[in-house]
Amino acid sequence: MADPRALFDLSGRVALVTGASSGLGRQAALTLAAAGARVVGVARRPDALAALKDEIGAQAAVAVADLSDRDALPGLAETVSALFGPPDIVVHAAGVNTRQPADEVTGAGWDRTLALNLGTPFFLSQALVPAMKSRGWGRIVNFASLQTTRAFPGGIAYGASKGGVGQLTRAMAEAWSPHGITANAIGPGFFPTELTRAVFEDQDRAARNAAQTCIGRNGRMADLDGPLLFLCSEASAYVTGQVLMVDGGFTAK
Fold first, then answer.
1. Stretch (H or E) spanning 64
2. How many helices (H) and strands (E) does the chain have?
3. Contact between 10 and 89 (Cβ < 8 Å)
4. Can you list the domains of the chain with their CATH numbers?
5. How far apart are CA 251 and CA 45, in angstroms?
6. Kind of pairing, strands 138-143 and 60-64?
7. pTM (2 d.p.)
8. How far apart are CA 214 and CA 216, in angstroms?
9. How confident is the model at residue 146 (pLDDT cuts 50, 70, 90)?
10. How far is CA 244 from the centre of its chain?
11. Average pLDDT in the 122-133 region?
């Protein structure tokens, strides 16, 4: 029997991580690099990306981009592919949550949320899939949310986008998995990131969220590592079209 640990080895793979300058995207980039992948981090903030590159070292490259600009995505795909070669793995961690109540949602806020959270994972993947098809191997990991299936106050645009991510993931699997490309999503619970800062600054709210889980606590960054590595590696070769909730059992209660 082969060493099961080899199933999680990403040596020789190239991974693209969006939203890599902070939060869960940054954690994903560090995890994939530690597993042996060469990692390209994409985000808007050059200073934060430079710090990520310095921490990872020669295995990392970065590209500054506005991921909500759909017209720029084909060019971005070419740019990142020129660094280490076309990505084998794409992790779509970039996202935005305007937290506008339903009666106050603006057209601009709605469009920005849907463009970045739902449009970018599809159109960027679409630009990268041909190279994956040519190799007969690829891993696409989207970021879903508790709001993929639950409604939260002030989350109508964000929830619509993340509900869409669930179906997008299934549709990607239907379209591309016959070519050796799996498409899955991680649905994080409450993790301490820039996107959830307001939640964690409210200690009572953070405590209520922790109590809602089966485990009894909110997420820690390291809780993401195992599920992500599973979905990005050979270990998940027969898993596609799934949303894996990494939420401590929040959605089980």
1. strand 60-64
2. 9, 7
3. yes
4. 4-252 (3.40.50.720)
5. 33
6. unpaired
7. 0.96
8. 6
9. very high
10. 12
11. 98
Rg (CA), the chain: 17
pLDDT at res. 5: 86
Which pLDDT value is given to residue 1? 64
Q: What is the mean pLDDT of the chain?
A: 96
Q: What value does the mean pLDDT take over residues 145-162? A: 96
Q: Residue 3: is its pLDDT beyond 90?
A: no
Instruction: Extract the runs of DSSP E, i.e. beta strands, from 93-221.
Output: 138-143, 181-188
Look up residue 253 and give its two tokens: 């209660």
Residue whose structure tokens are 């909110």: 218
Residues 35-68 have pLDDT tens digits of 999 999 999 999 999 999 999 999 999 999 999 9
Q: How far is CA 123 from the centre of its chain?
A: 14
Say what angle helices 23-34 and 46-56 make with each other, to 10 degrees.
20
CA 73, CA 65: separation in Å to the nearest integer? 9
d(CA 104, CA 209): 25
Compute the distance between CA of residue 194 and CA of residue 99 in angstroms, rounded to an integer. 13
Q: Which residue has the tokens 């405590």?
A: 207
Which residue numbers are catalytic? Answer: 158
Q: For the segment 87-110, what is each residue's pLDDT rounded down to a tens digit?
A: 999 999 999 999 999 999 999 999
Length of the chain: 253
Pairing mode, strands 243-246 and 38-43: unpaired
- Which of 36, 114, 131, 41 is CA-nearest to residue 78? 131
Question: What sign for the dihedral angle of Cα 10, 12, 14, 20?
Answer: positive
Tell me which residue has tokens 């089966």.
Answer: 214
The identity of residue 42, as a single letter, is V
- Residue owning tokens 């082969």: 2
